[in-house]
Amino acid sequence: MSTTALSPALSPAADHPAPRTSPASFAALGPLTARSLRACLRTPSLLVSPLFMSAFFLVIYEGQLSSVAATATPGGRYVDVVLPLCLLTTAFTGGATAGQLLVTDLGSGYHARLWLTPVARWTLVTAPVLAGVVVLTGQATALTALALLLGLSPVSGPPALLALVGATVLLGTGFLLLAAALGLHTGSNAAVSSVTLVFFPLSFFTATFVPRDQLDGWMAHAADINPLTPPLEAMRGLLTTPWSEQHPLPGVGVALVILVAGALAAHLALTRRTRTGV
Fold first, then answer.
1. What is the pLDDT of residues 206-252, one digit of tens each?
2. What is the pLDDT of residues 19-51, one digit of tens each?
3. What is the pTM of this model?
4. Could you state, in order of their start, the residue ranges of all structural domains in the chain?
5. What residues have CB less than 8 Å from 9, skipping those under 6 apart?
6. What is the SS3 string spanning the chain?
7. Which of 178, 184, 174, 177 is nearest to 269 (CA)?
């Protein structure tokens, strides 16, 4: 196939883009998502690296800090405090998955070939994001299982563990969409990695190693204005307080803001590429 035939800008499909919704689009979503999952399995850096990094921090933090910090933590179990931090890290490091998959497809020309099909454009972004959600769910579940081996015992019982994994996936989906938008807009893995580069340092300016009420001075003020503090506190509340005493709404609100911002950014990036063909 010639270069001209592969160029969206020079093809009839660019002048008559696929409909936003069609039976072909929904039928293609499953195979495209499965292909993205296979790409993750063939790329250990997408599948294993975020999990390994978070598991490493979980073991190190629990092993080195539990003896000095347990007295300041609810129930005396430091793993209850540090697991949500590690899951938060997993959410935005694993969130780069969708962007990296898109960058790979753009570089190989596969994305351009899909552009010529009657499949709606949104499926080309949704498929890698859904694959990222599946991968993130597995990573969060594995990390929670490791925490159980280290002594995790949520006050609200096993349902709190399901809620914790769900909260991680909700938050991570917003990061997946942000990374997908950057990948689609720039075609650069470096730009996609900026999602992690921005949020990883930010996570250390919240109640990183102790509950929020143990902070004072300038760090307490930094945690107050840090957008990652509400979701982190909500995730910790799932483990350390009964259902009746939890206050998840601020954390859920931040997660939804990130989700909407990511969806809007992905929509704008997709619209730009549709109009310009580049």
1. 887 777 777 878 888 888 899 999 999 999 999 988 888 888 899 99
2. 455 665 677 788 888 988 998 888 877 778 888
3. 0.83
4. 53-99+132-276
5. 276, 277, 278
6. CCHHHHCHHHCHHHHCCCCCCCHHHHHHHHHHHHHHHHHHHCCHHHHCHHHHHHHHHHHHHHHHHHHHHHHHCHHHCCHHHHHHHHHHHHHHHHCCHHHHHHHHHHHHCHHHHHHCCCCCCHHHHHHHHHHHHHHHHHHHHHHHHHHHHCCCCCCCCHHHHHHHHHHHHHHHHHHHHHHHHHHHHHCCHHHHHHHHHHHHHHHHHCCCCCCHHHCCHHHHHHHHHCCCHHHHHHHHHHHHCCHHHCCCHHHHHHHHHHHHHHHHHHHHHHHHHHHHCC
7. 184
Backbone angles phi, psi at 152, to 5 degrees: -60, 135
Number of other CB atoms surrounding residue 95 within 10 Å? 29
Tokens 């399995």 -> residue: 41
Find tokens 């570089």 and name the residue: 107
The answer to whether 146 touches 179, Cβ cutoff 8 Å, is no
φ and ψ of 20, to 5 deg = -65, -35
CA separation for the pair 203, 207 (Å, rounded): 8
